[in-house]
Amino acid sequence: MKMSPGRTSGTAFTADKETLAGYDQLLKKLNGSNLAYLHLMGAPGTIEERIALFSRHRAHHRGNIVADLGFTQALGNEILGHGVGDAVSFGAPFLANPDLVGRSAQGHPLAQADRETRYAGHAEGYTDYPAFSG
Ligand SMILES: Cc1cc2nc3c(=O)[nH]c(=O)nc-3n(C[C@H](O)[C@H](O)[C@H](O)COP(=O)(O)O)c2cc1C
Prior knowledge:
By secondary structure, the protein is α/β, with parallel strands linked by helices. The protein has two domains: 2-89; 91-134, no CATH class. It has five helices and four strands; from the N terminus they run E-H-E-H-E-H-E-H-H. The protein has helices at 17-29, 47-60, 73-81, 93-96, 100-106; strands at 2-3, 38-41, 65-68, 87-88. It has a four-stranded parallel β-sheet, with helices on one face. Strand 2 (38-41), helix 2 (47-60) and strand 3 form a beta-alpha-beta unit. Bound molecules: flavin mononucleotide. Flavin mononucleotide binds at residues 2, 41, 68-71, 90-93, 95, 118.
């Protein structure tokens, strides 16, 4: 199951205190649901802010938590090191880096995806980024 407790979208939706308190209850209720994992979209921020947010989720949910949103390899390792998530997910970095796993393992630099081609309805920006060639 994926949920976005940290999701803020301008004035349309804000992850304020009340929203997060609602998610606290929901995460507790899901403890009995035998889910494979909860995929939780956090919020952009410093590592301290990310740890604080995922610590809060961890405190309410005993099952596996996959931490999401804006992670780099280094930030992901920090989150996992603090034990507030069981795994970290990567979305957009896979667009520009079809070999993301290999690049990360080898310490190669990552390419940046062009936001203009995202959700544009074409294959461009989804299938045409090359693998690392040195
Ligand atoms: C091209 C693209 C399509 C996505 N489609 C969905 C979707 O259909 N449903 C969803 O919950 N999240 C979707 N996401 C969001 C990702 O699952 C993830 O939450 C988001 O990209 C944050 O991770 P990131 O910062 O590593 O990209 C999509 C992301 C990208 C880049």
